[in-house]
Design brief:
This protein has seven helices and five strands, in the order H-H-H-H-E-H-H-E-E-E-E-H. Helix 2 crosses helix 4 and helix 3 packs across helix 4. Helices cover 46% and strands 21% of the residues.
């Protein structure tokens, strides 16, 4: 068990209340009364839309916050116990242009420095994906989608990190990588 986090101090408390109309402290009380401390993540997330008027999206958010409040996990930790780090930027260009520029930026020496394996690229009608395994067994996914007709959002998701300390190290590394990419990207356009 992790240390508990008072609902009022949770970083997502305000957004949860704004979206659901219910304070995180009230969600915590309701879930506790419904036996939440004895339920796993999936059961709590299913319970919320069944019992209360909350969308599945916000049920997931409330469930994660609840688990952090009661000390089942810390911020950044998944229900499996590992951690994830993320960072994002909005960039000029359509998704195909942005993924091409990202792929060109992530040279073999840069990938090696970050401990990344060989990347794979895939696409759907809406998303472009640039994925790579890391030598430590964690996984990186760079997800790109159109924000409007001139810009795209590039989001980095690094999953499978072993510790909270590692999460902080990687979050800093990905923020720095995005800052470097943005600077190079702007110079080259």
């Amino acid at each position: 068990m992790s240390p508990t986090l008072p609902p009022s101090e949770h970083p997502r408390a305000a957004s949860i209340e704004a979206a659901t109309g219910i304070a995180l402290s009230e969600w915590t009380r309701r879930i506790d009364e419904a036996g939440g401390r004895d339920l796993d993540h999936a059961a709590i997330a299913r319970l919320l839309p069944q019992r209360w008027d909350v969308t599945e999206w916000w049920a997931q958010n409330v469930t994660v916050a609840y688990e952090q409040v009661i000390g089942r996990r810390v911020i950044g930790q998944s229900c499996e116990g590992d951690f994830s780090a993320s960072a994002s930027r909005t960039l000029t260009g359509d998704p195909d242009a942005v993924v091409a520029r990202w792929d060109a930026f992530m040279t073999a020496p840069r990938r090696e420095q970050l401990g990344l394996g060989e990347p794979s690229l895939s696409a759907t009608a809406r998303w472009r994906y640039w994925r790579a395994p890391l030598t430590d067994g964690s996984r990186l996914s760079v997800n790109i989608a159109a924000k409007d007709d001139r810009r795209s959002t590039l989001g980095i998701e690094h999953k499978g990190i072993e510790s909270a300390e590692g999460r902080e190290v990687w979050k800093t590394a990905w923020t720095r990588t995005l800052t470097d990419f943005t600077a190079v990207d702007e110079e080259n356009r």
